[in-house]
Amino acid sequence: MTEPATLEIKGLEASVEDKPILKGIDLVVKQGETHALMGPNGSGKSTLANVLMGRPGYTLTAGQVLFKGEDITKLTADKRAERGLFLAMQYPVEIPGVSVVNFLRTAYKSVKGEEINALQFRKHMKEKMTLLGVEDAMVQRYVNQGFSGGEKKKNEILQLAVLEPEIAVLDETDSGLDIDSLKAVAGGVAQLIGPDLGVLLITHYQRILNYVTPDFVHVMIGGRIVKSGGKELAAELEDKGYEGIRTELGLDEPATA
């Protein structure tokens, strides 16, 4: 039996434009587990997501990111994706002139390192579209061009399904969604969760956790994870708010970025 893929974050510190944002993050996410990382705006959640995927402009000042035992901190984003790591972005970008289906096929070949003919890929993609309730019309459009907020996020989840990574970081997938779009997108995530996928779900609202049940919940304030627990911690947050947690723990450090 193969060991589950593991994303291990050890003593991670990072800055943006010489401003310290992450101040010592320790976290382990295993394939098959769902972790929710919650925190107020400015706590460093999206910075963590970008550092994990190797986005330029974020300077790692201490610590390591290990994926399947390999230190990936020097790898480019595409090499991290090839290893089996995925990031769903908070603000997906538009790619005019490139259809969703062509984008996905190119990404699949790049990440998997194997050729796949159009018919084989169409069959694979169609299985995922059926699972997620994605219509044919959406994949014929240019990537995110003219998409609503919900469509952009649904497209991110389709990418996740098609590429089949071992660990996925979902950066505020619920951001800007109305209740119907939230249900659709969260339902898609819930469909994909299982023994082959580990998820780090980053959010500052509890509402997405009404549809996606985490195994673990972590609270991030001021660039640090200050409290961890089971799914009941999300309910505690809903009751107390982040200020309540801050008061409980005697934290007086403001949010960072």
Description:
The chain is an alpha/beta fold and 257 residues long. It has a domain of 172 residues: P-loop containing nucleotide triphosphate hydrolases (Rossmann fold), CATH 3.40.50.300. 37% of the residues lie in helices and 28% in strands. The chain has a 6-stranded mixed β-sheet, sandwiched between helices. A hairpin with a 2-residue loop joins strand 4 and strand 5. The longest helix is centred in the last third of the chain and has 18 residues. The termini are far apart. The model has no long low-confidence stretch (mean pLDDT 91).
**Strand content bin:** 25-35%
What is the CATH C level class of the domain at 6-92 and 165-249, in words? Answer: Alpha Beta
Please give the alpha-carbon distance between the first and last residues.
42 Å
Main β-sheet, spatial strand arrangement: 6-9-10-3-11-12
Q: Sum up the overall morphology in one term.
A: globular
List how many beta strands DSSP finds.
12
> Considering the protein shown, what is the CATH homologous superfamily of the domain at 6-92 and 165-249?
P-loop containing nucleotide triphosphate hydrolases
